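My hope is that you will study the record closing this message with an eye to the fold:
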Amino acid sequence: MLSAMPPAREAKEKSGTKSRRSGDGLTYASSGVSIEQGDRFVSMIQSLMRRTHGQRVINIPGGFAGMFRLDYNEKLFKRNYRDPVLVACADGVGTKVKLASAAGKFDTIGIDLVAMNVNDLIVQGAEPLFFLDYIAVHSVDPEWLMEIMKGIGEACSQSDAALLGGETAEMPDVYAEGEFDLAGFSVGVVELSRAMDSTRVEAGDVVLGLASDGLHSNGFSLVRAVIDHAGLDLSQRYDELDPQRTLGEVLLTPTRLYARPVVKVQRGYKVKKVVAGMAHITGGGLAGNLSRALHEGVDAVIDQSAWEAAPVFGFLQRHGKIDDEEMGRVFNMGIGYCMIVRPTFASSIREKLEKSGERVSVIGEIVKGSGRVKMKRRG
């Protein structure tokens, strides 16, 4: 296994595994693990990792773990935390990795990995600090692994998170040739008094929906079942979907990164707590995830006609003959992130988000209730 060492990765052999022997004896390479390929991959990504490092990352060449300065020297940094709370999460991209392998396209899956983590992190009101990745493979192929790492590095930069380290595990006995899996780990920080608390949500609050960029990274077991059932071709362009891109390219559109615009909005209101709750819309759909931001005294009433979902959702529903309830339970259906905000600030927050490049709709309101999300369609 290749052990990740901030600020770079270091390839090293784990004890208890098959090792080199002299003469005609067994070698680690003959068992399917190439230390040389691992070392080559490590050297290739060092500069990529350093590009995501700011002054908070402490350089420790040869270290066995990364070091990150949590509080700041006031002369060097803009602010100190009075009561900092660490926020951490771990996530992967599910079976979307199998679609990436089938399409031979690896330049977006790393973005998905970072997004699935940092989008969860910011729901608690936190700002991302750093990110670590875990890549498990049959064998190290530096060329396509670099495509994954470039996506990870790009997404970390866009989320203002340092890529602090990671692990690349070469396991030919576990993964078949061409197979791989990804996992990510993200850590952030929030001022305790600013952390999200569902008890702040009140009747009259407004629900803002930030548009998704397609499927993101949930429901891909069902997606792959639809492809098989309908005999769809990942390399084909479908006019009803997107005549400019292949089906594989559409399905592999990466998860949108909401961290920078959402954190920016939060920083704009240093005294008033104008954001009452947030939700990252992943598996379970809009209703299943938004309900996690509510307490038992309120409901969220969502108008499903308030936004237009991307064509990919209707495309999959038609070809898979999937009913509406199942679609809404599995997929985000066009809304990737929700913010519950005070009504008097809804317009200004929407404007700030749109200036940051988000596509925002007022999709609902909070009413007295019992902690449920009610999906309705006007007209």
The CA atoms of residues 234 and 248 lie 4 Å apart. Confidence is low (pLDDT under 50) at residues 1-22.
